[in-house]
Amino acid sequence: MLWGVVHTKGGVGKTTTSLYLALAAHRRGVPVRLVDADPQASATMWASAAVRAGHPLPFAVEPYSGAPRAKSGELILIDTPPGQADVLQEVLDCVDVAIVPTAASPMDLERVWPTLEVTSHLPTVVLLTQINTRARLVAELRELFEEQGVPVAENFIRHKEAFKQAWGTTPADLAGYGEVYDEISEALKWH
Ligand SMILES: Nc1ncnc2c1ncn2[C@@H]1O[C@H](COP(=O)(O)OP(=O)(O)OP(=O)(O)O)[C@@H](O)[C@H]1O
Ligand SMILES: [Mg+2]
């Protein structure tokens, strides 16, 4: 199965989400690879830094070279670049689901709609991330998306400094991504 992590805006948490979801899958015993379709190669650099630090990531991070094929029972996470690169369209043509991480600021939310247009032909789930607000506001945001027919993950990711510190390491704490992984895999009837 292939999961694409996409958002046309930069810096919303695509690479962080791809990496943590891959780690969550690995910790649940699912064979997983992370394919890096971003020419900035952030996920690849993260993996190299983890090797240099003596704690390599427990799954492969590979460059994108055409639509990957998952083996039976295998999960492939694809991290994508911001903007409207051709590779984004290619990725959206091969994945089973698009995961769209978005922060809750008005600007981030404004920018999420064009992304949802390009994913409209496939199952899509919005993941609220970098949240440092009250639960009531999160519920309102969820309603806003659901009124437009866009599912939002029940579980969301809080804004935490720990995510910045985690760069280049193999984080011990999944910091909410374990629940997100379980929710998405259950929704897709996957494992
Ligand atoms: N939940 C969070 N709380 C705090 N900081 C976060 C969180 N998620 C991501 N970050 C930080 O936000 C920055 C951008 O995250 P990330 O690189 O994952 O975004 P991106 O969408 O992949 O960016 P790009 O579009 O440049 O590829 C990083 O410094 C990351 O550590
Ligand atoms: Mg990135």
From TrEMBL:
Ranges of residues in domain CobQ/CobB/MinD/ParA nucleotide binding: 5-165
InterPro entries, A to Z: CobQ/CobB/MinD/ParA_Nub-bd_dom, DNA_Partitioning_ATPase, P-loop_NTPase
Gene3D superfamilies: P-loop containing nucleotide triphosphate hydrolases
Pfam families: CbiA
Protein name, UniProt field: ParA family protein
Organism: Corynebacterium marambiense
The organism's taxonomic lineage, starting at the top: Bacteria, Bacillati, Actinomycetota, Actinomycetes, Mycobacteriales
